[in-house]
Design brief:
This protein has 240 residues and is α/β, with parallel strands linked by helices. It contains 11 helices and 6 strands. It has a 6-stranded parallel β-sheet with strand order 2-1-3-4-5-6, with helices on both faces. Helix 4 packs across helix 6 and helix 8 packs across helix 9. It is globular, with a radius of gyration of 19 Å. It starts with a strand and ends with a helix.
């Protein structure tokens, strides 16, 4: 019996263990690898050549949408099923446009994920209910592509730096994460600002939100705690 080979990518160990257990319960599935960060997924896909990549949309290092774009280019035969807590059409559209074949909500049942993997293996696109295939088609039709996608001019490392910077990481933190010097990070950041025609950290964050490089619901890794919220917190402590 030919088995469908699967690579799991999620930054939470307990989630990966649960996904592995439920998928390997199917006789025709074989989980052949796991990844805990977005930056390691693409290399693993090239090395392991899985039939299906089950990928969390919010990954450290490089988010799921960027990983989807890279894998679609480097290993087009690998079908990608994105796992996400986000059900709005913009996220779904971006995942499909990036090359995903399936989009499954994390609240879905085991049977639904299994069904999604089998569906994409037959060449069918799978979207979790209550996502409407017709609604997504309409959304795709009304969204016109930009004549020039400036984001595509960034290198993979510049994309990583941009995501971390948009999350509010300091230069020293980014340098430590990527194992490069702070000066190198500053060079990457300058290139990003020049290529995307941005002028400030605020411009960078707005661009990242628009591209869904960081989520829209406040999970910006400390960026939103800057300014008024921190001053308010200090004020409350002073009053005590």
């Amino acid at each position: 019996m030919t088995r469908t080979t699967i690579l799991l990518a999620d930054d939470h160990t307990i989630v990966r263990r649960g996904l592995r257990a439920m998928l390997e319960a199917e006789e025709d599935f074989a989980v052949i690898g796991e990844a805990a960060s977005g930056s390691e997924v693409a290399d693993l896909v090239v090395r392991l050549q899985p039939d299906v990549l089950v990928l969390d949309i919010m990954m450290p290092g490089l988010n799921g949408l960027e990983v989807t774009r890279k894998v679609s280019q480097s290993s087009p035969q690998t079908r990608i099923v994105v796992l996400s807590t986000y059900s709005n059409e913009a996220y779904v559209h971006e995942a499909l446009r990036s090359g995903a074949s399936g989009y499954v909500l994390k609240a879905a049942s085991t049977a639904e994920l299994v069904h999604a993997v089998r569906a994409v293996m037959t060449g069918t696109r799978y979207l979790s209910p209550p996502l409407s295939d017709l609604a997504i088609e309409a959304y795709l039709r009304k969204t016109l592509p930009s004549p020039v996608d400036l984001y595509s001019t960034l290198t993979a490392r510049e994309q990583e730096v941009m995501q971390l910077a948009a999350q509010g990481r300091k230069v020293s933190e980014i340098a430590a994460r990527l194992e490069v010097s702070p000066r190198t990070v500053e060079t990457y950041r300058a290139n990003i600002m020049r290529k995307l025609k941005l002028h400030s950290q605020g411009d960078l964050i707005r661009y990242a939100l628009q591209r869904r490089i960081v989520p829209l619901d406040g999970e910006l890794g400390g960026v939103e705690e800057s300014g008024d919220s921190r001053r308010s917190s200090r004020g409350e402590q002073d009053r005590k």
